[in-house]
User: Fold Membrane protein from Lysobacter arseniciresistens ZS79.
Amino acid sequence: MQSAKDMVLRLLIVDDSVEAAEAIVSGLRNAGIAVRPSRPESEEALDALLAGPPLELVLAAEDSRTLPPATVMQRVDATGKDLPVILLVDAIDDTVLLQATASGAAGIALRRQIDQVEAIARKEWTALESRRALRKLESQVRETERRCDALIDSSRDPIAYVHEGMHIRANSAYLEMFGFDSFEDIEGMSLLDMVAPQHVDDFKQLLKRLGKGEAPPPRLEMEARTLEGESFPAVMEFTAATYEGEACQQVILRRQEFDPELAREVEELRQRDQATGLLNRPTFLRQLEDTVTDAARNASHHALLLVEPDHYAKLLQDLGLDAADKLIAACARRLQSALGPDDVVARFGEHQFAVLRAGSDYHGTVALAEAVRAAFAAAVLDVDDRSLNATASIGGVQIGQKIASVTAVLGKAHEGVQSAAGVGGNRVEIFDPGAVDRAEEERVEAWVNRIRDAIDGEGFVMHYQPLISLHGEPVEMYDAYLRMRGEGGELVQPLTFLQIAEEHGLLWEIDRWVVGRAIADIGERLRSGHRTTLLVRINEVSLQDDSLLQHIREQLAKHGAEGQLLVLQLPESKVFTHLKAAQAFQQRVAELGVRVGLEQFGSGLNSFQLLSHFNADMLKLDREFTEELAGSAEHQERVREIAAKAREMGKQTIANFVQDAGSMTILFGAGIDYAQGHFLAQAGPQMDYDFN
Assistant:
């Protein structure tokens, strides 16, 4: 299953108490789960939700009278869907446990113990996604097998499948090559019968090795023999395969109509990258697949490294685009100088290399990666008459049974490269499933230092996206987004570092920087004749004391800025779970003229109920409503409802992530006050949008 950061939990919660249901939703969100909740209040509403878009979980309160658990289970079973139901109880005893088991509930959770609710929810969600993935995979396998069967039957290449040396399948081209009329004539016949007598003994040994699970040779040159006894030069290519659930070998046999030596040279050229002389990506991937398979079957250990020269674009800019091949070749030579004779090395991307070392344990992998890093850092690259200083970022993976998947191996190696480059480059990051904690600690420590440097120096920058007024006179208003400068000038998105900042108590310092920067911008804009309103995000940690409030007061005075031009945004769910602190904060900043808005509005079970306790000035709709607005009548109706209620309460509304003209028309008709999104204008470092 993907991580909760990448997925949305579509949750149906049955509870007579809106407050109790909202508390569970907020608790799950605080635990990092993106929740899209629904709460039916009748059997008809329950049936409609079950018939709608797919759900992941149902949480049913044991004491619900509107929709008792037995009714919920009956309705869920009637749909025939794989939908786990978790029973929410106040206490667990033998009776409750037996009743829950008899009803078919997937689990039981104590309603007031949100940590346990979260753990049970994650467990059942993971199990559900695993079942869905398995069903999808089985379907894909069946479809793939069907297509492969059709391709093999129509292929001009002679192809056969062999199990324990016997033919279990062959296509028409294979039968024609050896003079057979139908597969029945060859079924069960030994592959040895297709080999010329002088090769039989060697071929027997090969079949024995294959029977023991050894890897087949990728290419075997020999003489084959037809049904009439005619011999001809041939090449066999072996690939491990399965047929009807049985492990076997796929054999492609071709006549050799030309010089074998020339064929070998052509094959060698086909496997090489022309600029560097290294293996190319497809050839390396085949080697990697064999290595990963060996790790899965034999519990062996191997090393994979992905290597990227740091600031490659700048190096190329200095040399000129016409020197691209020479630069990449120089990098390849530098890389090869740090490798051993048995290491497999390839050009894996435009300026990325891959290294595979068989039989390497974790310490050996680290040593190899450090040797490569040092080879780049300790010497210059010679390109024609130019000498360049170049370091490298390296992401490695310790391949073993715990990560015996090509996709997972490459994914982790890529993450390592990106993370190493993101904290300055000239760095090695190795993922070892057996030592995840150690690697994670090192990565986090580097990011914490990077964040602290950004706060203390000039490592953060702001980008600004205009908000377009849909009604009335245009107003200069921007939403400010935080970015971090990378070592090579690239921008690092907040999702990369905010979680680490939160875990290490740095969010309040980031909030101070963001708010201080925004107030300075407002003051500067005022002095240049622009009354510009800025929206910035703060975190709930800044509600806990008066430090941010005092900082705002000091910065407004320092920069001569007006408080009413600053809007502080908080997520709806965080305000709900920190309501008293949020109320006190809002009242205090209002004395300075500063306004407070709610983000992700409408994502809760009863968002407008929150407004009876919290006086937000602006409501920014949850992005769910606008991402598929043009194609969802339900979202359109919800947007109209929010806009109408907000207007009655004197609140301004904002729709973000607007993606098309159709959505703009809908938002205008619904009465939304402001819109923003890439369709209108992208965020950038300058506030230069023409609002007139």
User: Anything to note?
Assistant: The chain has four domains: 9-135, 155-257, 269-432, 463-481+512-675.
